[in-house]
Amino acid sequence: MSEPVIRLSHYIAGEWLAVNGQEWTTDINPSNATEVLAYVPPGDATEVDRAAEAAYSGFERWRVVSESQRAEILHRTANLLAQRRQDITIEFFTKTKTVQIIVPALARELP
Fold first, then answer.
1. 48-79 residues labelled b (16+ CB within 10 A) or e (exposed)
2. What is this structure's pTM?
């Protein structure tokens, strides 16, 4: 028996959007075309516009941050990801059944 396939929604501007409608797009595992990873709602112009506005707003805030502050933020983020990579990998990829592929790749890429 296979694991249940997850249903995702759009994440825009720090929030998960409610799914309106019954239409879903199938997200297929690129390494195994017979495996469904998740179902996702199709986006429309409203979601695209909202995501573009959120990205622009984020850029406007980010562009005034100094280079040294940006570097500090990115280094802190990288360190936190490296510290939690195993937990993150297991949480995210267990459902996609690609742990055996991703974990070795992460180990090669991260210090």
1. eeebeeeeeeeeeeeeeeeeeeeeeeeeeeee
2. 0.60
